[in-house]
Structures are given as structure tokens and as C-alpha cells.
Design brief:
Layout (H helix, E strand, L loop, with lengths): L4 E4 L3 H12 L4 E4 L14 E3 H6 L8 E5 L1 E6 L2 E6 L5 E4 L1 H14 L3 E3 L12 E4 L6 H5 L8 E10 L8 E6 L8 E5 L5 E7 L5 H11 L9 E11 L7 E2 L2 E3 L15 H16 L4 H24 L7 H13 L10
Parallel strand pairs: 1-2, 1-9, 2-8, 5-11, 9-16
Antiparallel strand pairs: 3-7, 4-7, 5-6, 10-13, 10-14, 11-12, 12-13, 15-16
Helix pairs in contact: 1-3, 1-6, 6-7, 7-8
Bound molecules: flavin-adenine dinucleotide.
The site of flavin-adenine dinucleotide (FAD) has 39 residues, from helix 1, strand 3, strand 10, strand 14 and helix 6.
């Protein structure tokens, strides 16, 4: 069978793209190199509830826990950002991605597993939703993404959690260009991790995050999983070349402040499907809707990156005000 749209990558964003395309009557195929769909839990999966609603996925069954704010910690001090109501969900990421795939299939998209794409597909429309190291971007000679955070995360059970309603964010010179985190998942399970723009400092980051969180992850805690992964910190300067388009991490549609990509990628997936169905320019459309907000996050990130040495709590203020000003972390400022 011939398809109108070929989506490469059955992560959450590829599946949302496929669902949105199929819902508009486009015959859609998704090719995934792995034997299962999704990110396989290589994600902290802390997502604002309003953001989740905006991408139209029935996320409820994937929710593990809810939080209402964060302690931002730097230089031995901390500041509380409290929304006074639950604003963000901690997701079981694999469950969420499977939901995205189920919704794509129920709209009529066909997902092919164990199909690693090694050449540009021949369909009328080709979508690279194949993550931060996108093969499609390389095969179609798109310009590279120029800024990444190298991340490590581990999940533990039997952790000691001071307050399950608050995430802890660590700004520390051991995590240059990003930050560390401890995210409660409920029932004394925590996700502890960090990112850095300097790959050569990963080992130092691991030692530091273990030390900062040692009051929570103790000898009686048990590691359930750990992983390393990349987060793009800047959008790709070009995301459409004729009939080839990039979406999600492949396009760098990620907030540079927090590394959150599900809401922006999910919204861009819808814009991509609308653009195909209504014969509009995808790149122009997503940049009109989402780029001002991504730019704002990028400017805050740059401000934090440019601090001379050592990070103080004062430096955290732009970060905190961004979170509290928009009420949650994933608002897209409509222009
Ligand atoms: C440590 C960490 C923490 C994060 N925390 C959060 C968070 O709290 N909140 C949030 O919103 N976001 C978070 N993110 C970001 C989020 O995980 C990504 O933005 C999101 O997963 C992007 O989804 P995607 O579908 O674009 O790419 P991916 O999930 O990477 O999916 C790409 C898919 O393409 C497949 N693929 C790749 N190449 C090929 C090929 N050649 N042929 C076929 N298939 C291929 C891969 O197997 C994969 O399934 C985090 C990321 C990391 C690394």
C-alpha cells in the first residue's frame, strides 16, 4: 500500500504526528527501529497538566504522581516556587508513549516495528521524528543542532522524600549549562539526575548529584534503572526542506530551561499535520506559534550559562519567575 506520510520514529512525538495526520485523512505509516514503541522510560517525564491537555493525548492512565512546585537550590540556600495547586504530572513515560501509539493506530495510522530507516522514504511527505540524533536530518542535509545537554538519570525506590509535592532543582557549578534534579514519583520513588553541556564533566556531575541528594537516596534505597541521554537545547535553524519535515527532538523543539520536549513537540506535531492537510508551510507555522516561547526559554538558559563562576540563588530568579509568571512550565505564549 502507498502512504501519503511516512513518519520515522515511533516515540511520543512521532505517534502524535501520525495520529494527527491520520485524523486528517492522510494515509500514514510510522517506522520504528526498536521492537517496541516509545522512549523506554529514558525521560524524567515531568509535564505540566495544562501542557498535557494541549497535546490532546489521553494521558490520565500514565500519571504516577502530581507536584505543585519546586525548591530551587543553589550555594547552600533554597527558594520555594509554589503554585499552591498541583500543576505538573510525573508520568510513567512508557505507558504514555504506548497511549500515543494506540491513539495513532485507532485513527488508522500503521506502525511498523523493527524497521530501521536507512534511506529517505519515498512517500509524498517524510517526517523525521527520530530524536535528537535524527537520521532523517542527516540524510536530507539539514543544518545540525548546535547545543545539547548530556544527561544522566537514575530512579530509586525506598528514598526519603522531604515533601512529595515539590521537585528539587539544583543549580551548581558541577552541572555547567544545565542543572540537577530530584523528582518525587510518589511512594518514596524518586528520579535523580542532571544535565551538563560539557560531556567531559559527566563523572564529576554524577559524584555531585549523589552527594547533594544523599539525604534522600540512602543506603536503604534501591536503584531501579539508570540511563544516559541527550537533550537538544536549541531548535534546528531549518526544519523543512520541500517534502521533508522534522518534529520533536529531531527539530530541537525543546525548552532550553528545563529540557521539556513533550508539550512543544506535541503541539508542533499537530501544526505539522495541519500544514500538510491545509497546504501551508510547516516551518513558518510552528515558528509563528511556538518559537517566541522557545526563544524566551533559550534566553533564560543563556543568562544562566553566562554567570561567571559558581551559581547563587539570585541567579535562579529568572528561572523561578519564568515558572511562576506563567503558572506552569509549558505555556506557549500565543502571538
Ligand atoms: C534525561 C531526560 C529527561 C527529560 N525530561 C523531560 C521531562 O521531564 N518533560 C518533558 O516534557 N520532556 C523531557 N525530556 C525530553 C523528552 O524526553 C523528549 O523531548 C521527547 O522524548 C522527544 O520525543 P521524540 O518522539 O521527538 O523523540 P524520541 O523519544 O527520542 O523518539 C525517537 C524515536 O525514533 C526512533 N528512531 C531513531 N532513528 C530511527 C531510524 N533510523 N529508523 C527508525 N526509527 C528510528 C527511536 O528508536 C525512537 O523511538 C527529557 C529528556 C531526557 C533525555
Amino acid at each position: 500500500m502507498r502512504y501519503d506520510v511516512s513518519v520515522v520514529g515511533a516515540g511520543a512525538i512521532g505517534c502524535i504526528t501520525a495520529k494527527e495526520c491520520a485524523a486528517r485523512g492522510l494515509r500514514t505509516a510510522v517506522y520504528e527501529e526498536d521492537a517496541i514503541v516509545g522512549k523506554q522510560r529514558k525521560c524524567t517525564a515531568l509535564v505540566s497538566e495544562s501542557g498535557l491537555r494541549s497535546i490532546g493525548v489521553d494521558y490520565k492512565r500514565a500519571v504516577l504522581h502530581k507536584v505543585r512546585g519546586a525548591f530551587i537550590e543553589a550555594g547552600g540556600k533554597r527558594m520555594l516556587v509554589d503554585a499552591r495547586r498541583n500543576i505538573a504530572c510525573v508520568l510513567e513515560r512508557q505507558r504514555f508513549d504506548e497511549q500515543c501509539a494506540e491513539e495513532a493506530e485507532s485513527e488508522g495510522a500503521k506502525i511498523f516495528l523493527r524497521k530501521k530507516v536507512r534511506a529517505l522514504p519515498k512517500e509524498k511527505w517524510i517526517v523525521g521524528a527520530d530524536g535528537a540524533s535524527s537520521f532523517i536530518a542527516r540524510a536530507a542535509s539539514f543544518p545540525p543542532i548546535t547545543r545539547f545537554a548530556f544527561c544522566y538519570e537514575a530512579e530509586y525506590k525506598n528514598a526519603r522524600v522531604e515533601d512529595e509535592a515539590f521537585v528539587r532543582v539544583f543549580l551548581d557549578s558541577a552541572f555547567p549549562g544545565f542543572f540537577g534534579w530530584l523528582v518525587p514519583c510518589g511512594n518514596n520513588v524518586v528520579r535523580v539526575g542532571f544535565g551538563t553541556q560539557k560531556h567531559e564533566r559527566m563523572n564529576e556531575g554524577k559524584r555531585r548529584i549523589a552527594s547533594i541528594t544523599s539525604n534522600s537516596v540512602t543506603k536503604s534505597s534501591k536503584k531501579l534503572r539508570e540511563f544516559h541521554a541527550l537533550i537538544p537545547l536549541k531548535w534546528r535553524s531549518q526544519t523543512q526542506r520541500g517534502n521533508v519535515m522534522l518534529v520533536g527532538d529531531a527539530a530541537g523543539q525543546v525548552k532550553a530551561t528545563t529540557g521539556g520536549g513533550l508539550v512543544f513537540g506535541g503541539n508542533c506535531a499537530r501544526i505539522l499535520a495541519e500544514s500538510i492537510a491545509e497546504n501551508r508551510n510547516y516551518e513558518k507555522e510552528w515558528k509563528k506559534e511556538c518559537l517566541p516561547t522557545l526563544k524566551l526559554h533559550y534566553l533564560v538558559r543563556r543568562k544562566l550559562d553566562l554567570l561567571p563562576s559558581g551559581i547563587t540563588l539570585a541567579a535562579a530568579k529568572p528561572f523561578a519567575s519564568l515558572v511562576s509568571r506563567f503558572g506552569d512550565m509549558d505555556n506557549i505564549i500565543r502571538v
